[in-house]
Amino acid sequence: MQHNLIINGKKIAITARRISDKNIFIKTGQKEIEAEILYAADNELILVIDGKKYRCFISAYRDKVFITLGGINYQLHRNESDDYYGSVDAKGGEEEIKSPIPGKVVKVCVEKGAKLKAGDLLIIVEAMKMENNIYAPFDLYVENIFVQEGENVDTEKTLIKTKPISTE
User: Fold this and answer.
1) Residue 168: helix, strand or coil by DSSP?
2) What is the pTM assigned to this prediction?
């Protein structure tokens, strides 16, 4: 599947495909990477690339996919259409931010009514003694916050309800 990866505002064409239940292949330019999938959940992967383990978090909005890999944030632009990425429109433009993993809310970094940019930190959830940062997937307003610090959450719990900032 062909994608455009955006790093520091520069578009880089990449091809990604699954080659087995446990392996994916990624090619960008002349560089080819094969990664082993050790763990996969709703929005999280643990990958082994060149013998090193990486935790990868994925969130999506319309034609964009936001990836945090090894503590670095990336934005992927999907070239093909996918109904899943249009689901926000079906909810009137509102988006519910959920935890990618079960854990404990360590810090709520925003307030109701806040105006944020894509990539701003929303909440920190701790799981297995690791802090997992949850970032704004797009420019947004915080409509409501449903959790507080110290609260245990699972992947079904809505943390924050947001509304995209209109770009019109």
Assistant:
1) coil
2) 0.49
pLDDT in tens, 48-60: 988 999 888 887 6
φ and ψ at residue 86, rounded to 5 degrees: -95, 0
3-class SS shares of the chain: helix, strand, coil, % to 5:
5, 60, 35
Q: Are 18 and 35 in contact (CB under 8 A)?
A: no
Are 123 and 160 within 8 A, CB to CB?
A: yes
Mean pLDDT of 59-88: 59
Strand, coil or helix: 23: strand
Amino acid identity of residue 82, one-letter, is D
| CA 31/CA 37 separation, integer angstroms | 19
- Token look-up 């509102």 returns 94
DSSP state of 90: H
Rounded CA gap, 112 and 140, in Å?
Answer: 11
Residue 71, Cα to own-chain centre: how many angstroms?
12
